[in-house]
Amino acid sequence: MVIDKSTPTQVMDIWQPRWKDRVALIAKYKVGTHNVITFSKTKSLPGEYYISGEAIKQYPIDNNGKLDCYAVPLDALEKLERK
User: Fold this and answer.
1) Does residue 57 sit in helix, strand or coil?
2) In DSSP terms, which residues pair with 8 in a beta bridge?
3) What distance in Å separates the CA atoms of residue 17 and residue 36, rounded to the nearest whole number?
4) What secondary structure does DSSP assign to 5-63, as a single string?
5) Distance (Å, whole) CA 5 – CA 26
6) How many angstroms separate the CA atoms of 2 and 41, rounded?
7) Would strands 81-82 and 2-3 be described as parallel, antiparallel, or unpaired?
8) What is the pTM of this model?
9) What does the pLDDT look like over 38-80, one tens digit per residue?
10) Close Cβ partners of 59 (under 8 Å, ≥ 6 residues apart)
């Protein structure tokens, strides 16, 4: 996915995905129209990833122990490039 640098995005930093089922838990209250996700403590997923707010809302809601989160499969995330 290619996004212009001036496009407003909601940036989320996730430490690690849930590896047992390869899912990123994205906090429900943080979801915006354009979402940029980085994995800060995982060397195997470098860079930024993109998913739209409409796409996130199609996935089931799960709980991470504290918050309600969308359980988004890693395959649904697109590598992000900014122009």
Assistant:
1) coil
2) none
3) 15
4) TTS--EEEEES--BTTTTEEEEEGGG--SEEEEEETT-TTS-SEEEEEHHHHTTSPEEE
5) 23
6) 24
7) parallel
8) 0.91
9) 999 999 999 999 999 999 999 999 999 999 999 999 999 999 9
10) 70, 71, 72, 73, 76
